[in-house]
Specification:
Number of domains: 1
CATH class: Alpha Beta
CATH superfamily: Metallo-dependent phosphatases
Order of helices and strands: HEEHEHEHEEEHEEEEEEE
CATH architecture: 4-Layer Sandwich
Strand content: 25-35%
Number of helices: 5
Radius of gyration: 20 Å
Helix content: 10-25%
Amino acid sequence: MGWTGWLLVALLATGAGLFAWGFWWEPGRLVLNEVDLELPGWPEDEETRVTLIADLHVGSPRNGIDKLRRVVRRVNETLPDLVLIAGDLTIDNVLGGRFVPPEDIATELERINAKYGVFAVIGNHDRWLSAERVTSALEGVGIDVLENANQRVRVRGHDVWIAGVADYWTGHPSVDDALRGVGDDPVLLFTHNPDLFPEVPPEVSLTLAGHTHGGQVLVPFVGAINTPSRFGDRYAEGHIVEDGRHLFVTSGVGTSRIGVRFRVPPEVAALRITRCLDCEPS
C-alpha cells in the first residue's frame, strides 16, 4: 500500500474515532463541575452549596432514565443546600431519541436530597410539550416551580431569596415580577435562557441558567459552531461577570435536535458560594 493509501486509512480511522467520540462516548459521560464563586454581599462566614442542573432532555441518545439516575446520585453526592433545575427536562424531535414522559422524569428527580429545597423553572422544550403538564409533574413530587415568582428560604441561619423567571423564548418572562417583594437579603435568580441576563438588576447576587449546552460541539481553534443565543458565545457557559453582576451558565446534561456532544461533556454543576470581601464597595 502506498502513502496515499495509508493516508486514506488514517483519515478514515480519525473520522470514525471523532464520530464515536461525538455521538457515543461524550453524550454518555457525566462530569462534576465544581466551581467556587465569591459574591459581593453574601453573608459573612457562610458557605452555601448550590447544585445546578439543566437541559436534562431525558430520552435523547445515550441519555435515558438510567443516565438520569446517575445525575441524581451525583447531585446527592454534592451534599447540596439547594438544588436548582433550570428547565428542559424533556425532548422535542431529537434525532434518534425516545420520548420519556415528564411524570417518569419527576419520579426520579424526587430522589434528590437538598437540605433547604429543590426548585425548578420551565424550559422551551418543556413548554413546547406542555408547561402545565411538566409543572404538575414536578410539583407532584414536591419540587417548587417558580414562574416569575420567588420564595424565601432559610439557609444555614440566613435568609436567601430564590427567584425564578419564565423562559425568554417561549414564556412571558418578567424579572420585575420575579423580584417583587424581595428584601435586602441575597438573591439567587434562575431562568432557562441566559439571554435574560442584561435585564437583571445589580441587586441580584447571582443569575443561573442553562439552555446553551455550552455550544454542544466545540471545534478546536474555531469554538462552538452553534450556540442558541442572540448573543452568540457571550453567555455560552461558565462564570461570567459584567458590570459587577454575576452569571453562571451550565452546559447541561442532554442533547437537542442532534444527539452529539464534542468537547462539551454533560455536567452537574456544584457551586460553592462565599462572600467576596474584595468586591465590597468602598
